[in-house]
Design a protein that fits this description.
Layout: H1 5-59, H2 86-103, H3 117-122, E1 127-132, E2 137-140, H4 142-147, H5 152-155, H6 169-185, E3 187-196, E4 202-214, E5 220-227, E6 229-233, E7 239-245, E8 251-253, H7 267-293, H8 301-324
Antiparallel strand pairs: 1-2, 1-5, 3-4, 4-5, 4-6, 6-7, 7-8
Helix pairs in contact: 7-8
Length: about 325
């Protein structure tokens, strides 16, 4: 049955009305979602600021209650650590977020609460450091400060060029190329390069991850690095001790499994084997010479086979002689 023009118009109007309702509801839902996200972000920031203020009030010997309250005894602890400031806490969260975005992995293991992130990263069992877009360090955790032999104020604010030998043009060029590639690619893994502490001690960074940090618009705001092992270099440039960061954020020697104890060698038996193999070498060498004296060449199959046997016996002889060394 065909619908009348009036009925058709009514249905079209109803469909359009429902479409408007759907779009309106979707916009309202989107606005509510944005509002909730903004509220959560504001709540996190407020929590961090509140924690910082409480720490500062405790450091100054102030009571958290009203002015009429009896002042509590001054705490024995010192002032809050620099990494506990609101700016650095927010930077800590940015480091974790950017690392996850670039690598797909967490910077810190486990579930770390917002107000615990700063302490967890500072005392982490690996080096974490970052510099801003002007290549000036703006963060270094406990392991980083110990490695470069600097305190917080000495490290933060230092140009990243000084993390390596400033007089070594090759090292500086390699370092610059690394940062440029990280800026271009966003991420570099398994990096190895030589750096130098503030007292002139050189070390080689092993298996480092370098990533670029960006803001919401994708503009570079800095770069960061994470690694947990270095090899200290001797004065002549040779490898010294391998060092790793332990669970307390402290550098310790890398524990390498002790080599297996040498097996007891039966000297007489080895000497007898050497004599036997030496005789076999002479005999097989004679076979090769005879084949060649009869017109054979290295391209002939029988000569190739004889030479192969000779080389095999010589290899066994070398192994036996090494046991007597």
């Amino acid at each position: 049955m065909l619908l009348s023009r009036a009925s058709s118009s009514t249905m079209v109007y109803a469909v359009r009305a429902r479409s408007r309702d759907v779009r309106t509801n979707a916009k309202k839902k989107s606005a509510k979602d944005k509002a909730r996200k903004a509220e959560r972000a504001a709540s996190n920031k407020k929590e961090l600021e509140s924690l910082t203020k409480r720490r500062e009030s405790v450091d100054d010997g102030e009571d958290e209650d009203d002015d009429d309250a009896v002042a509590a005894p001054a705490p024995t602890m010192g002032k809050s650590a620099p990494y506990e400031s609101t700016d650095i806490v927010m930077h800590t969260l940015a480091l974790g977020g950017s690392y996850k975005a670039k690598t797909g992995e967490k910077l810190l293991r486990g579930n770390v609460l917002v107000h615990e992130a700063a302490s967890a990263l500072f005392n982490a069992p690996f080096v974490c450091a970052s510099h801003d877009a002007e290549d000036t360090f703006n963060y270094g955790n406990k392991a980083a400060l110990a490695l470069w032999e600097l305190d917080w104020d000495g490290f933060v604010g230092m140009k990243s060029t000084k993390s390596a030998d400033v007089e070594d043009a090759t090292t500086q060029a390699e370092r610059r190329a690394l940062l440029d590639k990280a800026a271009s690619d966003g991420l570099i893994t398994n990096y190895s390069g030589v750096r130098m502490s503030s007292t002139g001690k050189k070390f080689r960074v092993e298996n480092a991850t370098v990533w670029t940090m960006t803001n919401g618009d994708g503009v570079k705001t800095g770069q960061a690095v994470r690694f947990e092992k270095v090899v200290r270099l001797n004065a002549d440039g040779s490898d010294g001790d391998a060092m790793v960061v332990n669970e307390n954020g402290e550098w310790v020697k890398d524990v390498v499994a002790s080599p297996a104890e040498d097996k007891v060698v039966d000297v007489d038996a080895v000497k007898a084997l050497v004599a036997e193999l030496s005789a076999q070498v002479e005999a097989q060498a004679a076979v090769v010479r005879e084949l060649k004296d009869n017109g054979g060449t290295n391209a002939d199959d029988d000569v190739k086979a004889a030479v192969s046997v000779l080389l095999d016996v010589k290899a066994k002889l070398s192994e036996a002689e090494a046991k007597l060394a």
